[in-house]
Amino acid sequence: MASNPSSGASTPNRFTSQKTTAEELLSTQTVGLVALSDFRKRRAEAIEQKERDAQDLLTGTSNSSGRATPDDASTPKEPPLKKKKRKVGTPKLSFGMDEEEDGGEGTDAATPLSGSASPRSGTPLSAKDSAAKKKGVNSNVAVAPRLLTKSALLKEAQTRESLRKEFLALQEAVKATEINIPFVFYDGTNIPGGVCTIRKGDFAWVFLDRSRKVGADLGVGEKVNSRREWARIGVDDLMMVRGNIIIPHHYDFYYFVINHTLGPGNRLLFDYSSEPPTKSTPPSSDTTTDTYNPLSVPSKTKPKDVTTDKKDLEGTDDDPTYTKVVDRRWYERNKHIFPASVWQEFDPEKDYQKEVKRDAGGNAFFFS
C-alpha cells in the first residue's frame, strides 16, 4: 500500500515524452503577444538549442543538464521599450500602422542580425520618403526666370497694342475692298437686274437699297407706273436670297467672307477672298457713309453709278441667278410654291451640309 503513491506518480511518465521539442521550448519562452522579429529570434534560438542537444547525444558528451532550457529567470530581462511617436499626416490603414509600430519596436530591441531578417518594415518608409521628396520638388528648371520690370511690362503692352492696330488695319482694308454682285429680280421669273458694286464691309440692306434704285431706274415690273412703285418701296419690303438662303438685313458680307460660310450643296455663300488687296482701290463717292442717304429718291439725271461695270473686281463673272432680289409681299403670297417653299432664313448655328431638304409639309425631296 505504501508503494501506491510512488507507482501512481511514475505511471504517467512512461507515456510522456521526455524530450522537449522546439515548439514546446518556444512556447515556454513566449508569453503573450510579442513582436514578429522577437518571435523569429526566439524560435531560431530554440531550434539551435535542440540541434546542440541532438549533437551532444550523438557524440556521447551530452551536457543537457548544464544547458537547460532557458526560462524567464535565466533569460536576461530586456530594457523597457520606448514607443515610437506616430508621424502626423501618414495616410495608412489602422492595422497597417499598428504592424509598422510593432515592427519598429522589435527592430529597435533586436540585434543587427534580426534587423536584416525583416526587410518589410523599411520598404514603406523609403517609398513614403521618396514620394514626399517628389512632391516637394515642384520647380521647372527648364524655364529660366524672368523679371517683370516696368520696362518689360511696358514693352509687352506696346507689342500687343501694335499687333491690335495691325489687325484692325488689315480688317478695315478687307472691309473697304469693293466687289461686284450680279443679281436678278425675282417674281416667279428671273428679271435681269445688273451688277451692284459694294464693299465687303457693307450690310445686306445696303445692297437691297441699291438694287431698289436700280429697279426704279430700269422700270422693272409689268405695271405702267413701275418706276413710281420702286421709288415708294422700302428696304424692309425686299429680301436678298442667295441660292436657297435668305440673308438677313443686319448681316454684313465680311461675316460670310471671313468665316467661309457654306450653304447647301457645299458651296460658299459668298465666294470672295478674305485677304486684303495688293493695291487698295480708292473708295467711290457713292459708297461714302457720310454722304450716303438710304432714303433718297433716285434721280433720272444722275448717271447709273451703282450699275457701272468694273471688270477688275471680284464677282463680276458670277451667275446672276444665284442672287435674287425678291419682294417680301410676293414671298408671303407664294412661299408654299416651289422654289420659294425651300427658301430658309440663314442660321449661323445650322449645318447645311447634313440637312435633308423637305417641303412645307415635312416630306423629304427625293433628290435631296
The portion of residues assigned to helices is 25-40%
Overall body shape: elongated
The helix-strand sequence is HHHHHHHEEHHEEHEEEHE
Task: Please report the distance between the alpha carbons of the first and last residues.
Answer: 125 Å
- Share of β-strand residues: 5-15%
Total helical elements: 11
The chain-level mean pLDDT equals 72
Radius of gyration: 51 Å
Helix/strand class: alpha/beta
Biggest beta-sheet profile:
6 strands, mixed
Low-confidence stretches: 1-8, 62-74, 106-124, 285-289, 300-309
- Strands of the widest sheet, in order across it, are 2-1-7-3-4-8
> How many strands in all?
8
Number of domains: 2
Protein name: FAM50 family protein
Domain FAM50A/XAP5 C-terminal: 177-356
Biased composition (Low complexity): 273-291
GO biological process, one term: chromatin organization
Describe the overall structure.
This protein is of the alpha/beta class and 368 residues long. The chain has two domains: 100 residues, no CATH class; 174 residues, no CATH class. It contains eleven helices and eight strands. The strands form two sheets. It has a six-stranded mixed β-sheet with strand order 2-1-7-3-4-8. A two-stranded antiparallel sheet has the order 5-6. The longest helix has 26 residues. The N and C termini lie far apart (125 Å). This is FAM50 family protein. One of its GO terms (biological process) is chromatin organization. InterPro entries: FAM50A/XAP5_C (IPR048337), XAP5 (IPR007005).
Characterize this entry briefly.
By secondary structure, this protein is α/β, with parallel strands linked by helices. It has helices at 4-14, 22-29, 36-59, 94-109, 112-116, 122-136, 150-175, 204-218, 226-232, 253-259, 328-334, and strands at 178-186, 190-199, 238-242, 245-247, 262-263, 267-268, 323-327, 344-345.
